[in-house]
Predict the 3D structure of the following.
Amino acid sequence: MTETLMISIYVFVLAAFVGFEVISKVPPLLHTPLMSGSNAISGITVVGSLIAAGEGHGGLSVILGMIAVIFAMINVVGGFMVTDRMLGMFKQDTSKPKQIKKAE
Amino acid sequence: MKELIYLAYLVSAVLFIMGLKLLSSPKTARRGNLLGALGMLIAIVVTLLDKAIIDFTFILIGLIVGGGIGLLLAKRVQMTAMPQMVGLLNGFGGGASTLVAFAEYMRLSGDASLTVWTGANVSYDVLATLVLSLLIGTVTFTGSLIAFAKLQGIMRGAPILYTMQKQINAAMLLGAIVLGVLFVLDPSLWLFLIIIIAIAAILGVTSVIPIGGADMPVVISLLNSYSGLAAAMTGFVLSNNALIITGTLVGASGFILTSIMCKAMNRSLGNVLFAGVGVDYTAGATTATEQRTVVRYTPEDAAFMLENAQSVIIVPGYGLAVAQAQHVLQELASLLISRGATVRYAIHPVAGRMPGHMNVLLAEANVPYDLLLEMDQINDDFQNTDVALIIGANDVVNPAARTKKESPLYGMPILNVDYARTTMVVKRSLNPGFAGEDNDLFYEKKTMMVFGDAKSVVTNLVQVLKK
């Protein structure tokens, strides 16, 4: 087992714990934005695809890289923007805050 | 330079984590999303500075085309179509992971024609994660496309079943793994990679087609988790920690949501992972032909009842969204509030077509989010409530889930609408919901059945109340 792999596994396991901690605190109210937002960050593959597309030799792999950039960018741009659009719609009730408190 | 790049990746990973953390409250969520986008921008810019990039032509084309399509999709999509949008985006994420992994294989092989393996010693772990990245990425890609087609109505939403479905899927997965192991032992066997991709493509299709429309929340969150895992695996291939951290975060998020959805639908995660979702349900789909009578009320009766109610809990279901009645429902709610009644919404975890979907639909209709309450928050309040108004929901309020052991719904957590003083059900017909279970609630004495399309009934109610 190489040292790089060991470090990668450490990062993977620790990130999984951080993920569970952070995400389990997201209320059901925001689960759809959570999903589209986390989906947008899964477009981080764009990092790998940029390198593949920018290699400049070996025609096919560059083309594959370019398609990968397109796919990942749809994911990134579409995901972040639609999440922002959704979150912009969530508004607090400012008209009658007292009445709601009483009811709870 | 290399160190700076690594540090910048760390910064973007931290921004992603902080962004997700801010999603814990609707007040800060939007800022959190912006932080995530900033993290992504940093990651992209830093990568463009990487020395390994020698030609920017294809990168620019990719950035412009992909960004443009994403922009258009995000602007155009309707809120009811959110599940298929997220499904489609998942698919693109998975597809990108597959492509990157394959391009990386071509680079490692050292020969563009792929016929000769001139690559130096590539360690087993890189090859193994490469196979996983291709496998998960491709399953995500085709599975998401099927989910998209089903939700968009391109494909029939009903489950497609055939004999030995699970066994064949398991055999395909096993076959792909065996080929993967052989490939790791001899990485010049590039043809095996192609076969693995082909199997994964079929597997993505065959594991999503048996899943019915109403079970989509589980599939969408599961595919969400897969797209993250695919990105994490690509991170292993490229030894890039930013990808590993980010992919894992997404994988964890999808996994948590999947288990929440499973609990809310009374299913085990194992059942879902082995592609059995919806199978048991269709078996129980009987026709409800019992001769029982319901009492049919007009919107006028219903309006009178609501007029005199001190407290109302509205239970919206997907029927509401289909009828696009959320806006007029909000009008009804504010009308009742202005008359001094307490009006709140009770949201079942699987109301809608993806986790939290109903909240978004209601937010679109300007319903303030503090009126939206989760099942656990509001379930004990039904007994003190005058009217439970159920619109386009069925299975999530079926008392059979509490009492009928043989019912497919048995054990599923439901909203306790039957504890309210009066139950008012707006529904188009007496047809059972997706679970195929007749709903005893409709035949109870204190239940008022108002038949009709959600939008026209609620519009009617508003008109009568305004008089």
User: Anything to note?
Assistant: Chain B touches chain A through 119 residues (CB under 8 Å).
